Amino acid sequence: MNYFEFYEIPVSFHPDAEVVKRKFYALSKEYHPDFYVNESEEKQQEILDLSTLNNKAYQVLSHEQKRLNYVLELFGALEEGEKYALPQDFLMEMMDVNEALMELEFDEDLAKVEQIKAQVAEIEDSLDTTLASLTHQFDEQGAEEKKALLLQIKDIYYRKKYLLRIRESINRFATLS
User: Fold this and answer.
1) pTM of the prediction?
2) pLDDT of res. 175
C-alpha cells in the first residue's frame, strides 16, 4: 500500500496540505499504541506498524522534495542506482559554473562567489517554475499524458540534484570568506 492509498487521497505532486495533516492526526489517534496495551502481541505489532507507516507517510507527503521523489518512484520513473544522462546543453552550462568554482580554489574572490550564487539561483528559479507547471499539469492529466510529463519531471529532478551539489560547493566557499 502506498502512502496516497493509506491516506485515501489521489496520487498527486500537490496534495491538499490540510487534508494530509488532518488524515495524519486522525490516524495518529486511531493507531496510537497506548490504546492497544491490552491487546495481543500481534495486534500491538500491527498497530505499531500502522503508526510507523502513518509517520512515514506524513513525512513524505508533507515535504515537497520527498514527495517529488516518492511520486517518481511510485510511477517507476526513478530506479535505484540509475545513471541518468543529463542533457548536453545543461552539462555545458554547468561546466562553466564548475570551472568558475575551480578558479575560486586558487583565488578566493567573494564577489565571484556571489556572482556564481546568483547564476545558480537563476537556474534554480527557472527549473522550479518549469517543475511547478509540469507537476500541476501531471495532476490534471490522464494516464498517457502523465507518462510523457513524468520524463520531463524526472529530467528536472536530476538537474536540481546536480545543482544541489553545486550549491553545497558554493556554500563551502561562502563560509571560508
Assistant:
1) 0.86
2) 64
